[in-house]
Design a protein that fits this description.
The structure is a single chain. By secondary structure, this protein is mainly alpha-helical. Helix content is about 70%, strand content about 0%. It contains three helices and no strands.
Length: about 45
Amino acid sequence: SLHHLFFKAVTTRTFKNQAFRHVKPFILFFLVINIKGHDLEIIFSIT
């Protein structure tokens, strides 16, 4: 999905950044309350 591609692009660029450790919880929380249940598998697969 477009959302998945966007998230993947963001996490790929942010992953190398030390701030990712602090941002990640907020990204996951945001996605959890904004996406469908089946997309949760995507989150956990890249966590």
